[in-house]
Amino acid sequence: xxxxxxxxxxxxxxxxxxxxxxKDSFKNTDDNNGSFYKVFxxxxx
Length: 45
Description:
- Keywords: Membrane, Transmembrane, Transmembrane helix.
- The chain crosses the membrane at residues 6-22.
- It is a single chain.
- By secondary structure, the protein is mainly beta.
- The chain has no helices and 4 strands.
- The strands form 2 sheets. A two-stranded antiparallel ribbon has the order 1-4. Strands 2-3 form a two-stranded antiparallel sheet.
- A hairpin with a 5-residue loop joins strand 2 and strand 3 (29-30).
């Protein structure tokens, strides 16, 4: 089994939440049953 990692740089003006959903190669979407995956991101001070 291969494990893939991704890194994303998102410029922010204020702190906030990033809402994520994932789509596989068969076009199936995983959006945590409609509530999405929520990640808190703090802006660089």
